[in-house]
Amino acid sequence: MSTRIQPQSIRTVGELFANAAIKDVETPIYPPKRSLLSRVHLYQGDITEIEVDAIVNAAKSTLQGGGGDLVDGAIHMAAGPALAKACRELYPGRHPCPTGDAKITPGFQLPSKHVIHTVGPRWSVSSDTKTMASQLASCYRKSLQLAVDNNCKSIAFPLISTGIYGYPIGEAAHVALKETRIFLEGNNQIYEYVAIMRLHGSSFTRLQPENSFHIIFPLGPEYITESVELLSSVKGPVDE
């Protein structure tokens, strides 16, 4: 049986603030909202091991695995051949999934109940950055809405398009977290959102100077008392 990681065992943004793994800023983009800090978890590890209602796959347009991203191949391998069959039934022949769209299948042999497949944009210096950002944002919006439509309460995302598709990690994280914040504020059904922060050798430490967690999910002064209480309950250092 594969390793199963429960979302409750993964530190939330609130706990990382309390443990000083994330530093607050004076000029956040959004106002502090403590309820969000307990719903968003940050994880460094294998997305195929997380036991949630849905994991999101950074897929290629045919949804056949192994070409959209290294995460894509890992998910198909862990789920077993039934996943590729289910994807073929979604898009028979040569009809690709459009960039920015998302589709859902069962998780089969994965700990997660579902896999949501979304096709991110390929980064190119010659392409319109606004268009690419809009397509990437659509991946998160449509995946989250698809999760809600299928009664998912928990979901795990990789940083879409940051593998072989080449989207800059800092910019991709900003788009991902902005869309996450907007969606979670308007929808309470998803109460556990896991952001996977290690892809292809990157790590939370590497992302720290440029990530958007502390800007989009700020701590805020009204959270100080609670953060002190959290600090005493956080066990051990943040994984590196």
UniProtKB/TrEMBL annotation:
Source organism, top-level taxon: Eukaryota
Domain Macro: 27-199
Classification via PROSITE patterns: MACRO
Pfam family of the protein (one): Macro
UniProt protein name: A1pp-domain-containing protein
